[in-house]
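Appendix C reproduces, verbatim, an entry submitted by the partner laboratory led by Prof. M.T., so that reviewers can inspect both the input and the predicted structure.
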Amino acid sequence: MTTLTAAPGVGLRPVRWSRLGWVTWRRYRFTLAAVVLVLAALSLELVLSGQHLRSAYDAVKACTPAASPRCRFLDESFHNTYGGGGFLAPVLLLLPGILGAFAGAPLVAKELETGTFRFAWTQGAGRMRWAVSLLLPAGLVLALLLAALGRLVAWHDQPLADAGIQSRLEPVTFSTSGVAVAAWALLGFALGAFAGVAWRRVLPGVASAFGAWFGLAFLATRVRGHYLAPLRTTSMQLSPRNLSVDEWWTKGGARVPSTQIDATLRSLGAEVSPHGVKVHVVPNSGSVDPIQYLLDHGYRQVTTYQPASRYWTLQWIETGWLVGLSVLLLGAAFWLLRRRAA
């Protein structure tokens, strides 16, 4: 009698990383092309407007004598024309979160939503290798693209900083230049990836990721001035290049409430802003200078601020916690994906 025995099973070798990268490129090259087109359009606008901005600033610097009516007119025109920031400011501020959420959420969520992940997981890749090949290259490419855009934004805004119109520490400028812009894009991407895995749906993933990103971006504007202990000054002329953190009035070394300042100024026919830091003279205030009146009566204005020289230190601090949070979110997405049943 002949006995038949089954041949030992041949294990399926995992797909090489290079092949997984090729599949990822084939599937998402159009998404990458769309991102590149958006960034290219913004870059072109930045280059063109930056050239006009630099030409106008060079004309102001070349004008002599600086105190002449013509030079003062050029300076005022430059401030009035370029001091508002234009339409690009809000676009650049929200761009890292928008691109990050729209790029990160669909990568895994689309597969989970349509059910095609079952096919991908049975082709010798496995869910973890498959997810890594999707998320890590895409996140890295997005961060690099936004870093290049941030460098261009810094070049574009340099004349504004030199002219004292804009501080590099202002929220709009700080988070759209330097290395922080790449970190904010990476955070949006990580939030999108995590939300996509959690929801297993594209639209809820994108919406919740951008909402969380926007909340963190708003929180950062509140805490950024406290990354390092602020400096303190009683000078009334803080350089516009510095970032003012807080302001208050003191008398005899003790802090006084704004209501006391307001009451003092009302006796002169003047009024103080709600924060007690800027005095607005009303018509019946006469010839008395309200600021000088406060100083003559022992009041001093104290301002805490971050100096412009700390720009790169603050940039690296913010980049550090953003990258750390992004790594945690990506790790949570991988963990959640591993635990979820097919």
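Strands lie at 231-233, 243-251, 254-256, 270-272, 279-281, 299-306. Additional entries are available on request from the coordinating office.
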